[in-house]
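INPUT
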Amino acid sequence: MKKILLHVEGLKKYYPVRKGILGSKKEYVKAVDGVDFDVYEGEVIGIVGESGCGKSTTGMLISNLINKTSGKIIFDGKDISNYDNAQMRSVRKDIQMIFQDPYASLNPRMSVREIIAEPLKIHKLTSGKEETDKRVVELLKQVGLDSYHAPRYPHEFSGGQRQRIGIARALAVEPKLVIADEPVSALDVSIQSQVLNLMKDLKEKFNLTYIFIAHDLSVVEHISDRIGVMYLGNFAEVADKKELYKNPLHPYTQALLSAVPVPDPRAKKDRIILEGSIPSALNPPSGCKFHTRCNRAMERCKVEVPKKTVINEKHYVYCHLYDEKE
Amino acid sequence: MKKVENKNILEIKDLHTYFYTDNGIVKAVDGVDINLKEGSTLGIVGESGSGKSVTALSVMNLLEGTKGKIVKGEILLDGKDIVNISKEEKRKLKGSQIGMIFQEPMTSLNPVLKIGDQIMEGLLQHSDMSKQEAKEKTIKILEQISIPRADKIINEYPFQLSGGMRQRIMIAMALVCNPKILIADEPTTALDVTIQAQILELILELKKIIGMSIMFITHDLGVVAEVCDEVVVMYCGRVVESGDVFTIFEDPQHPYTKGLLESIPKLGVEVERLDSIPGNVPNPKFMPKGCKFEPRCKYSMDICKEEEPPFFTFDNEHKSRCWLCKKEYGGEL
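OUTPUT
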C-alpha cells in the first residue's frame, strides 16, 4: 500500500445566510457537507461534479485558502486542521494550487519573472538576484517557455501560455501536492491537450501528487488514477478510473457518464437524461441528496442518508442500492 | 442523422467581415462559403478567434454598433440577399425568419423584464396577434419545452431561474415565431453536462416539430458528433474543411481537423499522451502569408509557406483546403 499523503475526514464548509426580518433567521449553504478521502503519494485523484457540487471549495479548504467549518486534514503525517496562518505558511510550500482562470490568477502589474520569483523569495529558497533569476529561467524552461519571456507581463501571453506561467509559479517551491482547480477548462482543445501533457510530464519528473478538479469527465479520466464524483457537497462514488468507467455504480455517476457527448457520430446512445437541475445547497433534499433526480430512488432514500459502502479496496459508493449486500 | 439532399436555405458566399479597430484591421472572417441545407443541422467548429461567431453575427446582422462590417460577400436566405436590404427589412428577418440563441443566457436576457414579456416581444413585433393571444402562445411554447408552471414563470425574472432554465427561455424566444433557421452559438458551453444533455435533446426534438434548419456553432467535437449532419471546420477566419459528419470524423483531410480530433481525450479510451497541435493561433495582425495553419502543421511543405491552398474536393461534397490534397502532393492526408 502506498503512503497516504493527505487524509481528509468529515470536512465541512457551511456559509451562513441571514434571512427574515433584520437577519434574525440564520440558514446555511452547505457547500461541502462532510467529505472523507485519502490521497496517496504519487497519484492523481480527480474530483468531478457539476457546478455547485463543492469540488472547488474542497480544493480551497485543503490548501486553507478559506477556513473550514469543521473536519480534519492530515497532511504528510501532520494534523494541519487547526494551523494558524503562520503555521500554514510552512505547509503552503508543500501544497500549491493551479487555478482555472489564468487571466485572473496572475497579477497584471507583475512581470513573469516577478510572479515566479515571489514564492522563491517568500520561502527563501534562493538567495540573491542571480540565483533567483537562474531558477526562474529554469522553471520557465520546464513548462515550455523561455528566458526571453521573463521580463514580459501576463497580458502579452495567450491563455495556454498564462496557464504555463501559473504552473511554473506553483512548481517554484517544489510542492508535494498540487491542487489544480479546472486548470484547462478555459483553454481551447488544441491548447488543452498541450497543458494536460505538460502536467503529466511534470508529475513524472518531480514525483508530484495532484488533486485534479474539473467538470469535464473526459479530461479527468485522461489524467487521473482515481476519480471521486461529487454531488451537492458529498462524494457519491470514488473508484479507480477504469473501474468507474466500466462499472459505475451510483445512479448519478451513470447519468453523468452517459451525458458526456462522444466525439464519434456512430456511437450508440443509450442516454440517461436526468430531470431538473441540481437543487440549492441552501435547502438540500433530505436523505440521499440525489433522490430528487434519481431514476432508482426508493422510499428510504428520502429519509436516510446513505453511508459509505465499500465495494473493494479502491471503490466505494454512497447509495442505498448497494448497502444491503454486506 | 440521415443524408439530406435538400436545397440550400442559407448560402454564405465569399463572406468577408472585417473589424476596423484602432490598432488596424482585423480580418475576422476572410472569405467564407457555407451552405446550410433545408432541414439539416450544420456544425461550425473552431477554436476561439476562428471567426465562427462573427460569421453568425454577420448572418444575423448584429454587427451594427461594433467596429465590424461586412466588406464583401453575399448572404442569401432562401435565395434572397439579406446583406444589402433596408434596415426595416433586416429587422423583419430577425426573429421571424432567423432565430438565434447565445452562449450566456444571463447576459442575453434582459434582467429587468419579465420572462413572458421577453418571449412575447417577437410575436407582437412579427405578427398581428393580440397581447392575450401572444400570452397564450407563450405559455404553450413554454410547456412544449417542458418548463414547469409556465403560467407563473412568465411573470418572473431571469435571475429567478437556473442556467439550464434560462437557456430554455432563450430557445423559446428564438423559436416562438417558427423561424426557418436557428443559429445556436455555443448554446450549451456554459451548462453542466447533465443539463447540456437535456438542452441538446430539446433542440433536436424542436427541430423535428418545427422543421427548421440549424447552424450549430461550437468548439466541442463531442456535441458536433451528436447533433450535426454536416460539419464546417474554421481556422483563422476561413473554412478549412467541410463535409458530412461521418466523413469529417472518420476521414478528415485537413491536418487541423485531424489534430483537433486527436487532441481531445475520449472517455473510456486510455492513452499515455494526447496528440496535441503545437503553438497557438496566429495573431490576426501577423497572419502567415501562405496557409494560415502552416506554422503549427506537422506536414508543412515549402508551398504551404508561400501560397494559400484552394479547396480540393473529394466525394460527397467533402472539401479540404490543404495542399496535400492536390494530386501532385499525394492527393490525400
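end of record. The longest strand of chain A covers residues 4-19.
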